[in-house]
Design brief:
Distance between the termini: 43 Å
Strand content: 15-25%
Low-confidence stretches: none
Strand order of the largest sheet: 2-1-3-5-4
Number of strands: 9
Helix content: 40-55%
Largest sheet: 5 strands, mixed
């Protein structure tokens, strides 16, 4: 007679039964996702199907569900991977990321966001990543957060102004992680307001400038012009950007909107 086995086996049997129920629910959900994919394909056959705000809101909602004693952060991670699996049912996701001096931080950040099995093309320069997306060789790119560490000298955000269809739409990792590398994710997709957003604007001018209401993340002098990357702590609508562009043009400053993203989640202590 094994008292431990007799005590634990019925509980394990309950877990196994619940797991089978979860699989059936996931199968049912995936069948609906297939239908969503068919609708998207019929209306927008060549578009990128990533919906940044909906994904961010779904993940945030998962953090708020009462699944105690299951940890909230792990609930969000599970939901992020359900989203990733669903995206790949609708449309296979592949990525591109720069690798420098053997460091593969941005490869892993792409996989942290889109799933550990995501195919990521490794490139020598950030400009190659943008070229991959523009040419359709990759759906998304993971690029260094400007102004942080060695990435401070990377001017990919200036190069992004030459790709009018590409936008920053998200940041990785999913959770705030002070002291660790961060990436901005880029794709041919229009950013959406999630309710907790930051927006990015690039400026070009004859000399150093200040953009009112924005934080400067990085600056670089190139071809006799000054470029700045600015972050605004809100979602910048097309109408608001057009008004800002008109206002700044009067000061001799040209600006480009390069994207918006939902702020990373905070793990409650």
């Amino acid at each position: 007679m094994n008292i431990y086995r007799d005590a634990i086996q019925p509980l394990r049997d309950q877990i196994d039964a619940i797991d089978r129920e979860l699989v059936q629910l996931l199968k049912k959900r995936s069948q609906v996702v297939q239908q969503v994919g068919h609708v998207k394909q019929s209306f927008h056959p060549t578009a990128c199907y990533i919906r940044p705000a909906r994904e961010a809101n779904m993940t945030e909602a998962a953090m708020g569900w009462d699944a105690a004693p299951f940890p909230k952060a792990y609930m969000a991670l599970i939901w992020r991977n359900i989203i990733n699996g669903s995206l790949n049912i609708e449309q296979p996701i592949n990525a591109s990321a720069p690798v420098r001096n053997g460091a593969r931080d941005y490869v892993w950040l792409a996989r942290e966001y889109f799933g550990a099995v995501t195919q990521v093309q490794e490139r020598g320069e950030s400009g190659d990543v943008l070229a991959d997306i523009a040419a359709g060789r990759a759906m998304v790119g993971a690029l260094p957060m400007p102004g942080e560490g060695p990435a401070n000298a990377d001017d990919w955000w200036v190069q992004l102004t030459r790709h009018p269809k590409l936008r920053v739409f998200a940041t990785a990792p999913l959770f705030e992680s002070p002291g660790l590398p961060r990436a901005l994710l880029v794709a041919d997709v229009e950013p959406e307001a999630s309710g907790r957003d930051a927006s990015l604007v690039v400026s070009q001018s004859a000399g150093p400038v200040i953009l009112e209401g924005a934080e400067k993340l990085a600056s670089i002098q190139k071809d006799g012009r000054w470029y700045g990357l600015w972050r605004m702590e809100h979602f910048l609508t097309p109408e608001a950007f057009d008004a800002l562009k008109t206002k700044q043009a009067q000061t001799g400053m040209d600006i480009w909107f390069i994207g918006s993203y939902a702020l990373p989640q905070t793990i409650a202590k």
